[in-house]
Amino acid sequence: MAGSPSRAAGRRLQLPLLSFLQGATAVLFAVFVRYNHKTDAALWHRGNHSNADNEFYFRYPSFQDVHAMVFVGFGFLMVFLQRYGFSSVGFTFLLAAFALQWSTLVQGFLHSFHGGHIHVGVESMINADFCAGAVLISFGAVLGKTGPAQLLLMALLEVVLFGINEFVLLHLLGVRDAGGSMTIHTFGAYFGLVLSQVLYRPQLEKSKHRQGLYHSDLFAMIGTIFLWIFWPSFNAALTSLGAGQHRTALNTYYSLAASTLGTFALSALVGEDGRLDMVHIQNAALAGRVVVGTSSEMMLTPFGALAAGFLAGTVSTLGYKFFTPILESKFKVQDTCGVHNLHGMPGVLGVLLGVLVAGLATHEAYGDGLESVFPLIAEGQRSATSQAMYQLFGLFVTLMFASVGGGLGGLLLKLPFLDSPPDSQCYEDQVHWQAPGATLSPLPTPAFQVPGEHEDKAQRPLRVEEADTQA
Amino acid sequence: MAGSPSRAAGRRLQLPLLSFLQGATAVLFAVFVRYNHKTDAALWHRGNHSNADNEFYFRYPSFQDVHAMVFVGFGFLMVFLQRYGFSSVGFTFLLAAFALQWSTLVQGFLHSFHGGHIHVGVESMINADFCAGAVLISFGAVLGKTGPAQLLLMALLEVVLFGINEFVLLHLLGVRDAGGSMTIHTFGAYFGLVLSQVLYRPQLEKSKHRQGLYHSDLFAMIGTIFLWIFWPSFNAALTSLGAGQHRTALNTYYSLAASTLGTFALSALVGEDGRLDMVHIQNAALAGRVVVGTSSEMMLTPFGALAAGFLAGTVSTLGYKFFTPILESKFKVQDTCGVHNLHGMPGVLGVLLGVLVAGLATHEAYGDGLESVFPLIAEGQRSATSQAMYQLFGLFVTLMFASVGGGLGGLLLKLPFLDSPPDSQCYEDQVHWQAPGATLSPLPTPAFQVPGEHEDKAQRPLRVEEADTQA
Amino acid sequence: MAGSPSRAAGRRLQLPLLSFLQGATAVLFAVFVRYNHKTDAALWHRGNHSNADNEFYFRYPSFQDVHAMVFVGFGFLMVFLQRYGFSSVGFTFLLAAFALQWSTLVQGFLHSFHGGHIHVGVESMINADFCAGAVLISFGAVLGKTGPAQLLLMALLEVVLFGINEFVLLHLLGVRDAGGSMTIHTFGAYFGLVLSQVLYRPQLEKSKHRQGLYHSDLFAMIGTIFLWIFWPSFNAALTSLGAGQHRTALNTYYSLAASTLGTFALSALVGEDGRLDMVHIQNAALAGRVVVGTSSEMMLTPFGALAAGFLAGTVSTLGYKFFTPILESKFKVQDTCGVHNLHGMPGVLGVLLGVLVAGLATHEAYGDGLESVFPLIAEGQRSATSQAMYQLFGLFVTLMFASVGGGLGGLLLKLPFLDSPPDSQCYEDQVHWQAPGATLSPLPTPAFQVPGEHEDKAQRPLRVEEADTQA
Lengths: 471, 471, 471
Description:
Chains A, B, C: This is Ammonium transporter Rh type B. Chain A is mainly α. In chain A, 66% of the residues lie in helices and 2% in strands.
């Protein structure tokens, strides 16, 4: 019970434990983390560089867009719940701020551990934000049904598995996945979905009526649009400099535009009375950038980007309409934000598209650029076909890590002392947030109501007339 | 009737037709659109460039700002309507996503069609977003009175005329218009205004009372501020590299600051009891960047930018206060967002300012920079005076294209099967969007109401007086 | 009285006076302000530069982030007040637009006045925005209790003192303060706090109940998040190119992440029933970037950044919980936004951290980079210890300028003709803004309330318990 001493004590003790988590992280930073040669005052000036050569200028603008997506985009996208806005934005803030520190360590140990130290710079900032993004995708699958302590434990585990999966794919298998269709979207989605399945709450049906407030949906659109506009930077942030980043951004731009049209088309087709559903627009329109996550750095061609984006938008919309209910009824997965439709299916499609485009790679098409997109093919160690096979194999590895990890995570989150909110408190901010005496929330009334059709039908129209006649 | 089977069927059929539109666009992309030499893996590496030379790094950060303005800025600026927020943001999203694809083709055929192909890169992304901006300006003039199918038809036509007008001005007449006072603001505004005139609805007066909700106005301010802060990037996005972009951003920055002060000054001067009007702040403060759209790349001088911005802010504010009512009563133009005040008049002023500044151009003032700002003058093909005359002529060409196009568009949009919303459903989301059982909207109550006094309508007129007399 | 002819006349006259302020500024611009050699068409092309060398490309992306923080971040952060949102965003807009022009002149005369002219470019844009930021910090201390004319007078004075203080610190004392812990945060905070003390309103207690509306807090989170994500750019905007900007952004990034965790930990620890307080999250989480404002360009080490950020987050949270009430009761300072917790204390901590890190500077740690971070030490004019002493002395100078200036400002703002809002109208938009007949505001009801239970206040305390016991 939210107000009972025991729970209060539980809450009072759990988040403060963050201090120890932060303390431990700080100690590890002290021991292992150092500036890299593009960040360190002495090392940078030792080499005889022009300042324009500093990677900062090639990657930082993209990083800032990614940073905005992680904190503004993911945070507000989840504000669509009527009385869970504080938690959606607040826990996104907390989770991402923790995940980016923790993944700086995990990814550092796996990717850039030299001479006993992790060397950090703008690339590690981008990689850490990417990992935080995967954690937030999983968060979307359990949104409203988990407390902050549970979420932090989830992040603690997921960041480690994310790093290992990424290491296996990129370094051991030589898989290409610049925009993270595999490492971020597919991994984050299925980790969260399996975890949500383990935490299945049979009595939660009713919670549905707590979703959606007119202005909450407008806040959510802030998240949608910021994710949408900056996604070209997300996919391009870590691709090869020059034409690589240029092409990646361009492909993503076209793919997103097409998925938006596909979403509107399908949403109207399947909507009641042919009306549009805001849930589709908020989410499915974003599927276009997931589907090109792997292939946007490749010679996908502008046409390929449009076709892939349109396909992703339609599939994602159909998923929200028809598959989400099945997911809950048949598979016992309560996918609060529909991450399966937004990240899961489009992610898998994106991997398959990557398999196709990689398999079609030729020296003619890439010229000397082959070295930067498919180094192993350029060096003659692999044929395009075998690269494609490795890409496909990467999908299975990712699904394996995600499922096992999500299942394990679900069991951990069931630990009794973790203060999981009771069914009656799910999707409610009040269990986690103080309501200062004067904090107010809009009075719920039916959507699109014409003033006057509220309780007292007779009086309101009058009042409006009055207001008008005064004017 | 919104819910009638016929209309429902109409809606259900129209938006899905988007799929064919998208299919046709995709086919045209497949046939004609190719990566340019800065985007293509093989072509880029063939030339022996340093990655820092890739245009991506000079223009992409500005592109991202433009992209944010188009989707966040225009979208939320139009959320000021009380129950039309879904449509304002949603249709902005749809229209812009379609327009940028379509204009990539149209502009490509006209501007960068070589060897049977359109070559795309960051410049074409910026140009496409610019064209989408013009379409959204026109959207502002018919906001709330048109359905998505009508809007898409409008975009289909407007994008073509935008491209032709732009081609005539920039390529045939050698007009300079980096920030689009002519090609974007003047064209978009008058195209939309004439179109709105053709669609005049004599019975729509009352709809006014549907405008304005406290939080809707705050959402609109999100749009205003994002448009305001990023406009220096908009004007600078396509100007010459180096000092050109630098100067353009600086001029726009000063002009915007001055137009903001001018708007507050005039809004208080003409406001009832000297109070400020949020509509003025949301819109007129932005006029400063329209007025320097043409001249911001020129040697306008910081003083010139301030003076122009201040003038634009005052003119725009007076337009909202005094001219908009006349526009509806006398000219039968129902300009929902006041695009005439925000884009029309300031756009024309901007052209005239461009005429003046171009006419004053000298080799002394521009030095070797003359080549990049006024190539025809630098090459001795034109005198500054003749360049000024061409600039002025460009205005008439633009007004001609905009008026004829807007009139034609208005007739097309009257086609009966296009599902235009009935007067009673204008400015209402419900005709276009599903209202899931739990979607809620705030209960309308008078502005600035003191809590607790909301039940009794009778006292409302009084109450405000009381509140005042307490003071 | 808001509605009385006298007040109305007062308002109607005051803001229009802005025109003269703008006119005077414009004249000064005409006489003194010129493009610098990186912005002027002739000067830039005279030197034989590659366009990539133009400072625009190194600093403009950071400038845009700073610009977004000033107008979006500060503006929306202050929307947390229930019925003061128009004024929070609107006056932020007005103040910043004036301050950046005025400070371009003041800073220009003090920093870049050569040959009778002020030379402007992207650096002056950044400096002007920084100064506007300091003015907005002071605004936060008097938010809701001052009219626009008073605020403009405050800005007029503060910008001058800001420029002088900055000149004394950076040019006379050789203090390093890239991110402005001293010049921006400490100065802005104490200037505003002393000013607020002079304007103390003993009867204002009750106004507290006007704070906080559910959606207002969500709007405020928009401000919080945009400030949070872009602060690395703020601190890095003016640091030395290359590794300097790179390192500054990285340090700020880590510090912010740690302060977020510290804030959540402490907020839960001190919150009633261990619940989180949105006020802490909105504000204290940002303290992390204030505390590294001075030292983020130095070799702070990633660990140092984490430790400093965590400390700042905890101290700031405790300030909101325990010190703000004392500040009002004992020191008669009504700090509306808690700028003492967000900018004051963290700012002073930041200065002390800078003293420490500067004192530890060695040639080994900085190598040839020492020249760009501590030129006076590199040139042998100072020892690290004496540099540290100068840093510390800079704090006292800043506090002196801020207190004297704030006191003086407070007396000026008391001038009777300045139309200060009466206590009953504090935190109310209606005194400053028109309420068009149809402008509506959400009906206030208790936070997290279950729909339908809003009428009877009696059950409200109970209700929460019930909800709990169901669990």
